[in-house]
Amino acid sequence: MFRLLLGIAFISAVLMAACDREEDFITAPDAKLEFSLDTLRFDTVFTQVGSATYSFKVYNRHDRPIRISNIMLDGSSGIRFRLNVDGVPGNAHQNVEIYGRDSIYVFAEVTIDPSQPLSVSPYVIEDGITFETNGNTQRVHLEAWGQNANYFPSRYNKGVPVLLSCNNGQVVWDDPKPYVVYGVIIIDECTLVIPAGARVHVHGGVAQNDLFGIYNDGLIYTLANGKIKVQGTAEKPVIIQGDRLEEPFENSRGQWNGIIIGKGSRGNEINYASVLNSRFALLVDSSAEITLRHSRFYNTSGNGIVGFHSRITAENCLVYNNGANSVQLILGGDYNFTYCTLANYGVNAGTLGMSNFYCYDDPLVCQVRRDYRLNAQFVNSVIYGSRRDQIELADITGRQTPAMFNVSFKDCVVRVDELLTRQSGRYSDFLSTMCTPCTNGMSNSKVFKDPNMGDYYLDSLSIAIGKAKPLPSIAIDLENRPRDAANPDAGCFERE
User: Fold this and answer.
1) Which domains does the chain have, with CATH numbers?
2) What residues have CB less than 8 Å from 309, skipping those under 6 apart?
3) pLDDT digits (tens, 9 = 90+) for 198-225
4) What is the Cα–Cα distance from 238 to 136, expressed in whole angstroms?
5) Which of 455, 462, 452 is nearest to 489 (CA)?
6) What is the pTM of this model?
7) β-pair partners for 105
């Protein structure tokens, strides 16, 4: 009997030792886990305080067991996501083992109160679960919706282009709830009307599809037979911005892609609106047209407004705080900016750039090029910033063909210096023939109250005061205040 017990004990010890041997576990860093999904979406519409629980499976497709050293909730959203790993609650787990050819469940739960402010419960809430195994890291994305809004075209549209068409009719976003654009909206044979007071939030982030490749998501795009009409008023302006309104992100640039007025699109308007926190605010493509009035374009990681061989009319507009040129006009076109303020501070880029050509290859080589005439007029405007030169001009003809580079500034406040001497003095006559009459500011010139704080009202000693010429057709400023009938101020704001 003793021998039998001793034998059983010996066999048990051997089996336990075999189970505990570290070499039985896969330790190779290229041995990855597999997941039943890459994004866990909580599809409940949170019109009241709501909680939802969903799950996914983690697979070990290998023959030997694998040990996950860490499973943890990233916690980047600040929202109360909660985890349960194979029946064990907690937002952090260590040394979780999965037998060969086996799997475990991971449960995630979120509770959201849409009555809370956006700083607590934003429109689109994102987080993630990180898995660390043998030195490699894998992640499952978490996605939920916190506020009661119109998610357009749907809440499952990340990285998906969707065609908005209405047989040449109109789609009007007049619901009092905000609209959250999720993915890419392509407008064709339809007019998207955004009425006064509407709030549009565009969800960005890196996405990939066959049409655009890898790109920054969140895009409103009109095709030739589509158009957009933003119809804000002074009392009820339209806001178009990203959907991250929590305090750390409220002024964050590049949250979404921007608005593109596609080739040949006509009849587009943006009135009394603010477009912000995008990569670019507005890009107007070949032969497309748009009219901008009483609007602001700011907090972009790239250009504010881009015109590419297009037609733009802008009145009483403010373009500022851009990562590249505030306004970039490429490959010619027709442009009229009146009573506008274009300002760029604290970046290594001018405020205004213009050219009558475009290089389709390396700009330093420029063997594949297209040229087109440029007509651009700036009237009663301020083009200013922190660099000594805020205007960049590039005429492919070297000013040998005036009709190809028809540029003028009238009654404007500008800041130029080396423009007058560079390019072999090509624009040495800028202040005498192209900018007449103009006020050229210096480093110590007073212009705005506090541009570092985004305050572009005119300083009491501003060199822009009284520098404009009256225009009967524009008797008010950006905020509907009356212009001085005899000596109005340059720029979008009339000083009170």
Assistant:
1) 34-145 (2.60.40.2310), 150-458 (2.160.20)
2) 285, 286, 287, 330, 331, 332, 333, 358, 372
3) 999 998 877 777 777 777 789 999 999 9
4) 46
5) 462
6) 0.78
7) 57
